[in-house]
Amino acid sequence: MSLQSFINEAISPWMQEDGPDNDIVMSTRVRLARNFSNVPFPLTANKEKLSVVSNTLKTHFENQSFEQYENLEFFSMEQMQALEKRVLVEKHLISPHLVEKDLESGVLISNNEQVSLMINEEDHIRLQLYFPGLQLDRGLKEAFRFDDWLEEKINYAFEEKRGYLTSCPTNAGTGLRASVMMHLPALTLTRKMSKMIPAINQLGLVVRGMYGEGSEALGNIYQISNQITLGRSEQDIIEDLQSVVEKMIERERFARKMLVEQSALRLEDRIFRSYGTLKYSRIMESKEAATCLSDLRLGIDVGYIDHLSKTILNELMVLTQPGFLQQYAKETLNAQQRDIRRASIIRERLSLEKG
């Protein structure tokens, strides 16, 4: 599969599947940080040392398959265009940090885009697995099995007392970062989310925007993940995150119920105003689009809108990102041109489902 085939399709195959609690939980990600035992970490390694890592991974795993994760394909950061990198970031297949690391850096991506293996980012290996809905237990099990498959060819940097050694101390121990992407419009509208975030942080978890650290929670989409990896088992980390996410799901559903019961007309008006804006606007900035798309998805979930697909939020949150807009236009666009193109794509997508 060529790079073009990855970036032509906004929605990865796994995202089109149903998952548990997918009215609120958009996706689950499990990431493992690993390093070679006999190579300096990327922060200090020279090109020659880093090439040992990239060549080893390419030699043993390029075009290989592990169960349903088929045909891992390698893409070099050095050989990719800036727009291609941006699109892969928007699909969450690589991190913004990897984009800046040209030296012997790359990524292995499975055919179904459910697995991406970032090479020579902050660590030698950042293994990521994605699942639709809330599937933390499954995600951990699958990550362990994939990790075992990698370890058949790689000796990891590991100590009995400290666990897996990583560039950043916050990742040492298990090397595990588990995260859940949640759509929480009712908690945001009722201003309860801002009160919940400090309490979540006190539990050793962190709340970020859609694209992780430093990103804004556009479209009422929040990424919740663990902060602590050292001194705790992987199962403990997963169970704590699962518990918090389940409570947030419960509160979001209750908040939606209260909005429908107590502010039905105002809520319905908000949703259909946003729907109208999406259907007829000719210019649309990214923040406005994200807000309106969030309202539209809420309208679908509470039953006000019954002729649109639930995947529309997932699709358009990706399709309307700057990289995809320019990929679709096949040219570089300035900010105003992107706003015009964004509005056009949204109108085109909505026209596919008549109501």
UniProtKB/TrEMBL annotation:
Activity regulation description: Appears to be allosterically activated by the binding of pArg-containing polypeptides to the pArg-binding pocket localized in the C-terminal domain of McsB.
Domain spans labelled Phosphagen kinase C-terminal: 24-255
Catalysed reaction, written as an equation: L-arginyl-[protein] + ATP = N(omega)-phospho-L-arginyl-[protein] + ADP + H(+)
Molecular function per GO: ATP binding; creatine kinase activity; protein arginine kinase activity
An individual GO BP term: phosphocreatine biosynthetic process
UniProt keyword terms in alphabetical order: Allosteric enzyme, ATP-binding, Kinase, Nucleotide-binding, Transferase
Gene3D superfamilies for this protein: Glutamine synthetase/guanido kinase, catalytic domain
This enzyme's EC code(s): 2.7.14.1
Positions annotated to bind ATP: 27-31, 92, 126, 177-181, 208-213
InterPro entries: Arg_Kinase, ATP-guanido_PTrfase, ATP-guanido_PTrfase_cat, Gln_synth/guanido_kin_cat_dom
GO cellular component, one term: extracellular space
Motif extent (RDXXRA motif of the pArg binding pocket involved in allosteric regulation): 338-343
Family in the record: Belongs to the ATP:guanido phosphotransferase family.
Protein function: Catalyzes the specific phosphorylation of arginine residues in a large number of proteins. Is part of the bacterial stress response system. Protein arginine phosphorylation has a physiologically important role and is involved in the regulation of many critical cellular processes, such as protein homeostasis, motility, competence, and stringent and stress responses, by regulating gene expression and protein activity.
HAMAP family documented for this protein: Prot_Arg_kinase (MF_00602)
Designated name of the protein: Protein-arginine kinase
Organism of provenance: Natronobacillus azotifigens
